[in-house]
Amino acid sequence: MIGVFDSGHGGLTILHALTARLPGHRYVYLGDHAHAPYGARDVEAIYELTRDNVERLFSIGCRLVLLACNTASAVALRRLQQSWLPHAAPDNRILGVVVPTIEAVTKVPWHVTSPPSGQAHEAKSVVVYATRRTVESGSYRYEIGLRAPAVTVLQQACAGLVDRIELDAPEAEIARMVAGFVAASLIGIGAGTEPSVPDTAILGCTHYPLVATHFAAALPPGVEILDQPDIVADSLGRYLSRHPEFDAPDPANPEPRFFTTGDPARIDPLASRFFGRAVSFERLASGLAG
Ligand code: DGL
After folding, report:
1. 177 Cβ contact list (under 8 Å, min separation 6)
2. Residue 209 burial class via C-beta count within 10 angstroms: exposed 0-12, middle 13-18, buried 19 and up
3. Which of 75, 131, 132 to mutate to test ligand 1, by most ligand atoms within 8 A of the CB atom?
4. Among 41, 127, 149, 156, which residue has the fewest nearby CB atoms (within 10 Å)?
């Protein structure tokens, strides 16, 4: 079983890509709706909530958990892997969504932490749109910088965007918000020593693919918006082919199960929009093991 964790239902955009690209696996989704959103919580709270939810997924038999949340991946993953997992569950693994995205931008494998010699990286400029904590963590900027220092990384926190998407705000309002964030991220571009117009945009929050068309409309022509769900699914596929011990596809093609720490009745309608088809959440308290 593969556990897929998110603060709420944004991670369903990732799960949707997993079920399309890696069918047959037994996926268990857990959304911590009772504590969402994570994007403006303090770092310690994000760490502790993420750890507790990973532990829940481990306890029901998921040996591999994917943090399908940029905030949790950026803020908590490294610490979980280095300080918690080795004693709490040494045979299990936790993966995130930031690593595959950085590999896709830099074309450098994660284990390479300095620019490959002899491989002059094509200079480019990347803009990252994410939650406040993801931006503050500096993960995207730091990790891209290690592997591809010629790449300029601009970052823009999109305060409140997750909440408006969650509340199914009118498209025109979302479009205005997105246009404002894009404009803010590009201030000064092309002037003096400022970087040139980005050629790549990372929607570094699991909610933003739902409003990707608004980013595409607001960004200058020619900016490529990376498809994080597909990138993550492809990366997980490669990981599973190297580590089949963590999960093998089941020919019966089981349906994913969806759990929440919140109230399923309030979650199901919007969650179905994120997943692209009807989903039915079960409350965590009703028993994950059933
Ligand atoms: N899932 C979060 C992320 O990708 C966004 C929602 C939240 O702030 O909890 O950053």
Report:
1. 158, 160, 161, 164
2. buried
3. 131
4. 149
Identify which of 208, 201, 178, 164 has the alpha carbon closest to the alpha carbon of residue 71. 208
CA of 40 to the centre of ligand 1 (A): 9
State the residue for tokens 């995130």. Answer: 96
**In the prediction, which pLDDT does 113 show?**
76
State pLDDT tens for residues 7-37.
Answer: 998 999 999 999 999 999 999 999 999 999 9
Q: Does ligand 1 come within 6 angstroms of the Cβ of 10?
A: yes
CA 172 to chain centre: 25
Question: Would you state the pLDDT for residue 119?
Answer: 57
The pTM of this model reads 0.93
Task: Confirm whether 69 is a catalytic residue.
Answer: yes
Q: What is the pLDDT of residue 60?
A: 93
Identify whether 62 is a catalytic site residue: no
Residues of the chain with pLDDT under 70: 117-123, 190-195, 285-290
Domains of the chain: 2-99+229-283 (3.40.50.1860), 109-227 (3.40.50.1860)
Q: Cβ(209) to ligand 1 under 6 A?
A: no
Cα angle 31, 136, 113; round to 5: 95
